[in-house]
Write a structure and sequence with these properties.
By secondary structure, the chain is α/β, with parallel strands linked by helices. The protein has helices at residues 19-35, 48-53, 68-75, 111-120, 135-147, 159-167, 178-187, 234-248, 251-259, 269-290, and strands spanning 9-13, 39-43, 61-66, 87-102, 126-129, 152-155, 173-177, 191-195, 221-229, 263-264. Strands 1, 2, 3, 4, 5, 6, 7, 8, 9 and 10 form a ten-stranded mixed sheet that branches. Helix 5 links the parallel strand 5 (126-129) and strand 6.
């Protein structure tokens, strides 16, 4: 770890332009300076996990990926990696909550009022999502189960079309990213009820959590972390953790991420591993009970 690195390091991540990609590029820029070696970003889309799972555990191949890494095995058969066996967590890098928004025609101003309406009108309220197993879909299913209400998922081709659907009044509610919903909330085309994180967030100041405003214990966030291949020496993981967390906590990186609805966390490897285990236990039950599949 003291001599590391002696050659370029790569961070493998998903498609260009994604949040994974942005976080990877900001970290790569910081590490290039602090490590004194070039750190490059390698975009591999859905194959990113497979590439890193099969890489040498020498600190020269890292992974920037989020929640799909550990829930994909619950959604699909024959996923070519095991989220626990094949990776060594480096740090829980960032957290992105969703915002529960409703169309203005839905005459509610709180989560508890929304639950009351859904109970009074079973099957009449629709919520917009994109692909099966997406953050918006899982947030909606968790809400449906915990609130014991019958709301109907309406699937759109992408997040943008789903947002257009609720703005246009085709559906009544959605669990949207903060960045995507913000301009519509500001203009009055959508009404924000609550944030899906366990604690209030500076991304939407003053907005209560779902948990505190009608559904205790509710939390649905998109987590993004940095991983190394399983078997990476502990000393290297410690060094990488220190360098990555230092980069994440710079004012410039925090500001860049805040603008796109992302909060910096920066945990220890052990804290991140524990969070992944708890997330897997929770979401596996939701996915199984709802029969969600992403073929």
């Amino acid at each position: 770890a003291q001599n590391y690195p002696t050659r370029p390091v790569r961070i493998v991540t998903s498609e260009p332009g994604s949040t994974n990609d942005l976080v990877a590029r900001l970290i790569a820029q910081g590490l290039t300076v602090s490590l004194g070696r070039q750190v490059i970003v390698d975009n591999r889309a859905i194959r990113a996990g497979e590439v890193v799972a099969g890489a040498q555990p020498d600190g020269y191949t890292l992974l920037s990926y989020g929640t799909p890494l550990w829930i994909m095995p619950f959604l699909r058969d024959n996923v070519p990696w095991d989220p626990v066996r094949d990776f060594s967590p480096v740090t829980w890098a960032t957290s992105s909550p969703n915002i529960l928004v409703v169309h203005p025609s839905v005459r509610v101003n709180s989560v508890s009022e929304l639950i009351g309406m859904a109970k009074a009108r079973p099957g009449e309220l629709n919520y917009a999502t994109s692909s099966p197993g997406s953050a918006a879909h899982l947030a909606g299913e968790l809400f449906r189960v915990m609130a014991a209400v019958k709301i109907v998922r309406i699937a759109y081709k992408g997040t943008g079309t789903a947002l257009n659907g609720i703005v246009g009044g085709e559906v009544q509610l959605m669990f949207s990213t903060a960045a995507a919903a913000a301009p519509h909330i500001k203009s009055g085309r959508l009404r924000a009820l609550a944030v899906t994180s366990a604690q209030p967030t500076s991304l939407v100041p003053g907005l209560p959590t779902v948990a505190a405003s009608g559904l205790p214990g509710y939390e649905a966030i998109l987590i993004l972390g940095i991983f190394a291949p399983a078997g990476t020496p502990a000393a290297l993981l410690t060094r990488l953790n220190e360098e990555v967390v230092r980069t994440l906590n710079t004012a410039e990186v925090k500001e860049r991420l805040h603008k796109v609805g992302v909060e910096v966390v920066g945990s220890s490897p052990a804290q991140f591993a524990a969070k992944i285990r708890s997330e897997m236990a929770r979401w596996s039950k939701v996915i199984k009970d709802a029969g969600i599949r992403d073929e």
